[in-house]
Design brief:
Blueprint: H1 10-16, H2 18-30, H3 39-49, E1 55-58, E2 65-70, E3 78-84, H4 111-127, E4 135-141, H5 149-155, E5 168-175, E6 183-185, E7 188-191, E8 193-202, E9 206-207, H6 217-235, E10 242-251, E11 257-258, E12 261-270, H7 273-293, E13 297-306, E14 309-311, H8 313-327, E15 332-334, H9 345-351, E16 354-360, H10 386-404
Parallel strand pairs: 3-4, 3-5, 5-16, 6-15
Antiparallel strand pairs: 1-2, 2-4, 6-16, 7-14, 8-12, 8-13, 9-11, 10-12
């Protein structure tokens, strides 16, 4: 007669995996890839998943990996855990010994940590498969940085991967400028919607000494940029704000030639679906009105990017409860307000009750208040948070499945 030794506590098991998680994180960090197709990153993920009791599906239109763990304690609900895998077009200057070896590409947003954390959760839950009365879907996602990889995975049937729609979905995001090891979240809106306003003012060029003989688009473009800022302060409540930043403004070739066209591009952030819809209408009205006042034609296009990321109230409370129970009361912080960054996990949260939260990963010796932020070429993230992040994702799945099982 054989007996199976009891597994160590989840957090202890996670810390035993820490060297493997660090090795994976460093390997992914040194070899970053951009976009929807990440063949080298996908191969690294598949190599670690090989031999585990998982049903694996690869994306058709992107280099995603979807892995399903069938619980050994019988059928039950499904929970989804997500980690994004893509990097950014940034030249790394962090000076890390495992810095990117790919020129102009860097894991400046910590997605390399997300890969390692989710992989840790996979291994922890596979070890505990016989305790699980339900299924877990692991979502290894490319294309978060502006390409909507989550939506592509949804379109390819992500939510049907286990045969039943998940009862909940969870994702974390590391931050290089939040206190190391601190877990932060909030109910309701946690990340903004992000959209783009693209404007071309079309006039008539001429000599810089005779603007009356031309139709100068440059003052109109400048006026439109300023008018958009006034619109924000006069048309939107400070309690449901929008943020508009014109990061690109281009016109002309030389100082004494009035150009035919002036072009600008503005990122638009909003924190509710209502404000998102309204800012589209208001921004287009302002830009078209300025153009008309100057006698110009205008091409103005408002392009949707990512929706507002909204945490389900019950799932946000569940994340808080679980983080405190697993890591300690002092490791949780409730955020006073959402961040103005955007996230394509929002597409998942639109369809499934979700809990999205942050994990502080400021490195030792830096002050979170002044540390290089995510997307900086100097951004650095602490390896020490990997095991705790993996344990927290795994614990969320275990507890949520147990809570939903009759």
């Amino acid at each position: 007669m054989t007996s199976t030794a009891p597994l160590p506590p989840l957090l202890e098991s996670a810390h035993a995996l820490q060297p493997d998680l660090v090795a994976l994180r460093h390997a992914v960090h040194q070899d970053p890839e951009i976009g929807l197709e990440l063949p080298r990153t996908q191969a690294k993920v598949l190599a670690v998943l090989d031999g585990l009791p998982l049903e694996i599906t690869l994306g058709e239109k992107l280099g995603s990996v979807t892995a399903v763990l069938r619980g050994g304690a019988g059928p039950g609900p499904t929970v989804l855990l997500r980690g994004d895998m893509d990097a950014l077009p940034v030249q790394e200057t962090s000076g890390l010994p495992f810095a990117s070896t790919v020129p102009g590409v860097m894991h400046a947003c910590g997605h390399d940590l997300h890969v390692a954390v989710l992989m840790g959760a996979v291994r922890l839950l596979c070890e505990r498969r016989e305790q699980i009365a339900g299924d877990v879907v692991f979502m290894f996602q490319p294309g978060e940085e502006g390409l909507g990889g989550a939506k592509v995975m949804l379109d390819e049937g992500l939510l049907a991967a286990s045969g039943s729609t998940p009862v909940a979905a969870y994702a974390l995001h590391v931050s290089s400028a939040m206190p190391q090891g601190q877990v932060l979240g909030r109910p309701g809106t946690i990340m903004a919607a992000a959209d783009t306003l693209t404007v071309t003012m079309r006039g008539r060029g001429g000599h810089g000494s005779a603007p009356f003989a031309a139709l100068d688009p440059v003052p109109a473009a400048c006026e439109a940029v300023l008018a958009l800022q006034t619109m924000v302060t006069r048309r939107f409540s400070v309690f449901d704000p929008v943020v508009l930043t014109t990061g690109l403004l281009r016109a002309g070739t030389i100082n004494n030639v009035i150009p035919d066209d002036a072009f600008f591009e503005t990122t638009v952030r909003s924190f509710s679906p209502e404000a998102r819809e309204r800012v589209r209408e208001e921004a287009l009205r302002v830009v078209r009105g300025v153009a008309e006042a100057h006698g110009l034609e205008v091409d103005a296009v408002f392009s949707d990017m990512y929706p507002v990321t909204v945490n389900d109230g019950g799932e946000a409370a569940f994340v808080q409860e679980t983080a405190k129970a697993l890591l300690g009361e002092d490791r949780w912080t409730t955020m006073d307000q959402p961040l103005a960054g955007a996230e394509d996990f929002s597409y998942v949260a639109e369809q499934i009750p979700s809990g999205y939260f942050f994990l502080g990963a400021c490195v030792d010796g830096l002050d979170p208040e002044t540390a290089p932020y995510n997307h900086s070429p100097e951004a650095a993230f602490a390896d020490s948070v990997l095991a705790d992040g993996a344990a927290l994702l795994a614990e969320l799945a275990l507890r949520r499945i147990s809570r939903a099982t009759p």
